[in-house]
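I hope you will forgive my troubling you with a question about protein structure. The full record is reproduced below for your convenience:

——
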Amino acid sequence: MTTAAPEPKANMGQPIPRYDAVAKVTGKADYAADVPLVRPAYAFLITSAIAKGRVTAMELEEARKVRGVLDIITHENAEKLKDAKLFNDGGYVSTTNQPLKSADIAEEGQIVGVVLAESYEAAREAAHRVRVTYDARLPTTTLDSPGTTSAPAKGQVSRHEDPHVGNFDKAFATSEVQFEATYETPPQHHNPMELFATSCVWNGDRLTIYEPSQYVHGLKHGVAEQLGIEADKVRVVNSYVGGAFGSKGSMTPRTAIIASLARRLGRPVKLVATRDQGFNIATYRAETRHSIRIGANSNGKLAALSHEGWELSSRADPYAVSGTKTTTRLYDCPNVESHVAIVRADRNTPGFMRSPPEVPYMFALESAMDEVAHLLRMDPIEFRRLNDTMKEPIGGKTYTSRSLMACYDEGSKAFGWAARRSEPGSMADGDWLIGYGCATTCYPTQMAPAAARVRLQRDGRTRVEIAGHEIGNGAYTVIAQAAAERLGVPVEQVSVFIGDSDLPPAPVAGGSNSTASTCSAVMMVCDQIRQRLFKAVMPRESVVDKAKETVGLGQTPVTQAAKSDAPVDREKAFDALGVGVVEEYGEWKPEGAPLDSFRAMHKGQMRMVGGPEFKSGIAYAFGAEFVEVRVNRWTREIRVPRLLGAFAAGRIMNPRTARSQLMGGLIWGMSAALHEATEMDERYARYVNDNLADYLVPVNADTPSVEVILLSEQDDQVNPAGIKGLGELGNVGTNAAVCNALFHATGQRIRQLPVRLEKLEV
């Protein structure tokens, strides 16, 4: 084995190469904008130059003179689409602010028009010739801008809670050590390599959409709802997604607009939005502010914890990620209170961005934990060990498994934590101050209903169909492995078909639920096939079905023989059945899922369960992250020569793809601390660095060494596959570990991200 393909430990699959690797590196993989269309028209968006006000006039004459222009659509002649419900509230759309419905402008970069032309170049030229006149009003931009409104998230956001237990005020007042601080995280944009593209083709009354999507069934139903047509007349095709990180999880306004224009024009329409337009027509991670108060005894035991959060959202939508559901349950503390408020401003609606709640909220908590450990003169790891718990404090639920301290032990040993001197500024190498920092990472184990169809041929060739999504997470690979392992066939003989809404429905590729959900469904259907094969060759009296041992809830029971590792005599079974192909379809839902889960699944509506709300306890994946920073004592230049993470996430389907995801997460977490911030022009509520030249992201030179350690962990409670999910685990807590390392190097606490050298005093 190699570093890229770690030797599998107990409860891990084989590190086989990615199923889609050759297609991607040779350019054979078709992304949404690559699909050839017959006589397409090209669309180019006209977007607002103001954040608040109205369009008073649009001069189109010069634009219409451009050769090849077919039509120009504005609010005056656009089809008025139907309203839709916010994805975060059980609907489909990323925002309820619908462009082209009126002359009103609610955010900078809002779509105010669309040019259709015979070529992309003509559409772009014409769009740049359109002159828009506005009645502009003064916008409100950030958390502290005049004109914001603030209200509790509770009551505005469905399923939001403000976790609390005990008497925080009394416990904090009597604590021997009292700590209080405020932390801030900036707005950030996903910037996936693949731009936001939509191609729409009508064949009679049937619509096919080619669009990078993390949820093809949700997009299908959302477009149908806005167009006022039946969902079975819409198909979404998307074999590969070139990066998303949450930005392609819900339906943005552009899709139904392009679909309506293709119907209006009577020919296919293709849109590829520009990089800067992507900052406004899609979602982003909103800025947050946190107030942390911690009370502890002199021996290091936590006595009181308060976490208050403020999150920015748009005027139109009460979006909040509400990360206190995690931070209030992480450590053993008898007195906890929390509160989250939504601050409304004249901005586009935020949305999911990799580890939406945990990245900003865990930054605050894990920074504060490091600060309290320093006040107590305790090692940060030992402080966390003292307050580790197998029962979360809010409801007293037991963790299905929790290997947090095992991760710290493995990680600290590999990192060389024992060589760390406790005093800040005490480690140096010439002109470079050296700092070691650590932080906890965690992410809720979540699952959602999924369906699958599996076909096994006599010669072992297998076809798996499920409308999952390949967003760079290795979905093709792990689904193939799940089927191969269950059916006892070589993985090379398994063909996986995903990314098409005509296939059996699967949940959104978000919330780190994809592998757990899709593999559980595929495994269940494979067991149904095994059951048929075993029944064909075994004496009837020896086949004992036990409903309670079935893999899928409410599904056909699976025999003990079918569930065992005993090989199936495939040739004999097929002879007995008298067929050459066996095919099964099944629908799986996790324990505790609502009664309407399957109905909702077929309507493209999420019914995700798990994490703090897991029926049998509380389910999380855990990890420990370590960072070495170097700060030049004269220039304050910051370098990060080492990142290391140790992670435990139940069953690891493929150590190679898992390592890749976690490595990327660590790098992004470091980036969230030192590089990434969407800069705002507060006068106009405008994103300034809306391009890859000015929006800073790390490159190879910024990350010389990134090490991932996968711990063996078995959790039979979470789902039939035993998978906890890890796509978002890697970048939680890293930003805090970086800042904790910076304090250790310099003695300076930075509580506002990102950390740039001008924030460090010489």
Remarks:
- The CA atoms of residues 559 and 611 lie 30 Å apart.
